[in-house]
């Protein structure tokens, strides 16, 4: 038997238990601590719920040890018909109904909140080959293994696979000369109309409104396959609110943007997300070149420039991880050219709550 407890950030013991359960599951899946979370990061994320309602559960066994966790994010300003759910159970506790209990509780919360759709992901350290033991995404790109525990869990409950994303990893530092060549070639293709700017931490005030436009476009200009996801509306205040939340969680961004000089507008951006538990790994966060400026090698320009900066500002980093939709061929091509290697990925799922 296990006891479900809600984690709201006020009880350090429950936050610690949630973190332990989460980290145990991701370590078993990936074999690395790159995705680990910290108590400060989790608790800090629960304090500000203006844009998302965040429900967190942890399951404790009879001895009080954490054996499973659950998370539900319900969006409050955009896409208010949907949400994101995540359930993880330690391998030693599977098969006893703990995951079912967490899932059922979170689904009840989502329905009571009036949600009609939910999204979820299933992680995989290796993408399976094509064949009868794999399920292909409707996009025609990417597969998940039918015998994966998470895949079985969702398919039994009426979830539909909509997309597969690829995780790629880059070992750094790269040779400085090779990285300079990438950047110089991309700048030649872009021409003098474009220049790269950098910042660390908060967005400079003079770029807040422009950066808000990029954040809004990020929600519409990237492939989302059959996921029922619409535009997010960002403004300067929302950016500042996210920056404050991330600072409280001990997270920060290293951001590069590309300016279209004749108009003084931003054409794209990329960012590394620096995490608190390690100085050897960073997440490659968003990368976007808006549609009007594509075809000029701006994606490579941004990524190469930010990699150069990372080598100077964070010389201890040895790995960078990134995620892209398998059908996002242009961005995947840039990653491959830089030296990223495939390292598993995730199935992206959707559930219509109107179904029984």
UniProtKB/TrEMBL annotation:
The keyword Chloroplast does not apply. The keyword Cytoplasm does not apply. Its EC number is 2.3.1.-. One of its GO terms (molecular function) is acyltransferase activity. InterPro entries: Acyl_CoA_acyltransferase (IPR016181), Bact_Acetyltransf (IPR050832), GNAT_dom (IPR000182). Keywords: Acyltransferase, Transferase. It holds the Pfam family Acetyltransf_1. Residues 2-181 form the N-acetyltransferase domain. Residues 120-142 are annotated as: Disordered. SUPFAM superfamilies: Acyl-CoA N-acyltransferases (Nat). It comes from the Bacteria. This is GNAT family N-acetyltransferase. It comes from Cellulomonas edaphi.
């Amino acid at each position: 038997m296990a006891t479900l407890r809600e984690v709201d950030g006020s009880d350090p013991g429950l936050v610690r238990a949630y973190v332990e359960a989460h980290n145990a599951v991701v370590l078993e899946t990936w074999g690395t601590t790159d995705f680990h979370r910290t108590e400060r990061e989790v608790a800090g994320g629960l304090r500000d719920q203006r844009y998302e309602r965040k429900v967190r559960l942890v399951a404790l066994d009879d001895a009080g040890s954490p054996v499973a966790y659950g998370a539900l994010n319900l969006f409050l300003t955009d896409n208010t018909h949907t949400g994101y759910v995540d359930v993880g159970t330690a391998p030693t506790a599977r098969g006893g109904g703990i995951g079912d209990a967490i899932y059922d509780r979170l689904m009840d919360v989502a329905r009571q909140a009036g949600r009609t759709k939910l999204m979820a992901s299933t992680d995989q350290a290796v993408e399976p080959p094509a064949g009868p033991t794999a399920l292909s995404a409707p996009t025609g790109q990417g597969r998940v293994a039918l015998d994966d525990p998470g895949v079985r869990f969702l398919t039994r409950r009426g979830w539909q696979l909509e997309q597969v994303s690829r995780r790629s990893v880059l070992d750094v530092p790269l040779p400085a000369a090779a990285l300079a060549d990438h950047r110089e070639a991309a700048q030649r293709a872009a021409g003098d109309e474009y220049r790269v700017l950098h910042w660390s931490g908060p967005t400079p005030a003079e770029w807040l409104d422009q950066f808000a436009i990029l954040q809004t476009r990020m929600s519409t200009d990237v492939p989302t396959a059959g996921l029922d996801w619409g535009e997010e509306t960002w403004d300067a205040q929302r950016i500042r609110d996210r920056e404050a939340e991330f600072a409280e969680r001990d997270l920060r961004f290293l951001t590069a943007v590309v300016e279209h000089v004749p108009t003084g507008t931003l054409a794209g951006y990329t960012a590394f997300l620096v995490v608190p538990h390690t100085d050897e790994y960073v997440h490659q966060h968003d990368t976007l070149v808006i549609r009007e400026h594509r075809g000029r090698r701006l994606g490579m320009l941004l990524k190469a420039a930010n990699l150069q900066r990372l080598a100077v500002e964070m010389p201890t980093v040895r790995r960078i991880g990134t995620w892209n939709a398998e059908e996002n061929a242009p961005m995947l091509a840039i990653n491959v050219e830089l030296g990223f290697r495939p390292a598993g990925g995730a199935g992206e799922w959707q559930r219509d709550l109107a179904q029984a």
